[in-house]
């Protein structure tokens, strides 16, 4: 059996959705006779009656309904393939390949890239949003031009430059008992409390663990371990428990009152956000331009 053409399958799906060959023909941008001819061709190809025709109109047969469902899946898979090909094409033609942790990608990079593209409007930027560990892996293997991370760990094989400073804040839902505390949460209580946390490899989680270890304390296992900052914020807001999150991330929530900040004491929760690249390379061209934009208010020297 030879394969049917895509437009005929799409027309069949429209008929199944609309229950009318005439309406489906209009959606497909063809005349009713042309649509009827296409459906007849499909019926001959499949050896099945797909429509019951009558003077008052056409209805889909039981077999036709099944074929419509299968055709819809085929068209969805085809669309996914086309989108995937387009993504590969964009990645292949990207003039500047970046990867960034979520905090940098959401709150800082859009402004930096906007400034960069004002001087280079034809520039195409490819951006992957990953946790800090994965960003470093891509940078180390030369798969990106520049990465942006939150992790405090020492970076073997990479050089880095500070691009921003950030602070982690302890947040809870307005109804949480900690929201009414008169005294800060100390490091010991923080270490002994299961927190809602990002996954292993997240820069935010690394910062929290390193800060507690620096006080001689081992953090408790997470209350919940979630794969995105948005999921952590939502869980905190519903009252599931406390979390330590970037001040950049929760600023609007704190202003709106949907989250409450709980003061902490005895633990250092400030951190630097850094650009990273392979130690055996030097940023140049648009990569250097972006790095200059990112660091123009923070002229910290690059360090290994």
TrEMBL record:
It holds the Pfam family HTH_1. Residues 4-61 form the HTH lysR-type domain. Signal peptide: none annotated. InterPro entries: LysR_HTH_N, LysR_subst-bd, WH-like_DNA-bd_sf, WH_DNA-bd_sf. One of its GO terms (molecular function) is transcription cis-regulatory region binding. PROSITE patterns: HTH_LYSR. Belongs to the LysR transcriptional regulatory family. PANTHER family: HTH-TYPE TRANSCRIPTIONAL REGULATOR, HTH-TYPE TRANSCRIPTIONAL REGULATOR CYSL. This is DNA-binding transcriptional LysR family regulator.
């Amino acid at each position: 059996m030879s394969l049917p053409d895509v437009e005929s399958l799409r027309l069949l799906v429209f008929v199944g959705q609309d229950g009318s060959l005439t309406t489906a023909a209009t959606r497909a941008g063809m005349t009713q006779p042309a649509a009827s001819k296409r459906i007849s061709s499909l019926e001959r190809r499949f050896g099945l009656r797909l429509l019951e025709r009558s003077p008052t109109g056409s209805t889909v047969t039981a077999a036709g309904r099944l074929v419509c469902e299968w055709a819809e899946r085929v068209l969805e898979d085809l669309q996914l393939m086309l989108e995937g090909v387009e993504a590969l094409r964009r990645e292949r033609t990207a003039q500047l390949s970046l990867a960034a942790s979520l905090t940098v990608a959401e709150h800082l990079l859009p402004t930096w890239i906007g400034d960069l593209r004002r001087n280079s409007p034809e520039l195409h930027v490819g951006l992957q949003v990953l946790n800090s560990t994965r960003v470093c892996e891509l940078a180390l293997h030369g798969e990106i031009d520049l990465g942006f991370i939150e992790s405090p760990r020492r970076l073997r094989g990479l050089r880095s430059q500070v691009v921003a400073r950030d602070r982690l804040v302890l947040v809870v839902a307005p109804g949480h008992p900690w929201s009414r505390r008169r005294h800060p949460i100390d490091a010991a209580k923080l270490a002994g409390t299961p927190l809602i946390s990002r996954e292993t490899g997240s820069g935010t989680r690394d910062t929290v663990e390193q800060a507690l270890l620096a006080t001689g304390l081992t953090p408790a296992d997470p209350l919940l371990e979630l794969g995105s900052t948005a999921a952590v914020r939502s869980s905190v807001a519903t009252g599931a428990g406390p979390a330590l999150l970037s001040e950049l991330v929760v600023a609007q929530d704190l202003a709106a009152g949907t989250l409450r900040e709980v003061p902490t004491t005895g633990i250092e929760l400030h951190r630097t956000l850094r650009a990273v690249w392979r130690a055996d390379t030097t940023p140049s061209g648009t990569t250097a331009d972006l790095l200059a934009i990112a660091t123009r208010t923070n002229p910290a020297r690059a360090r290994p």
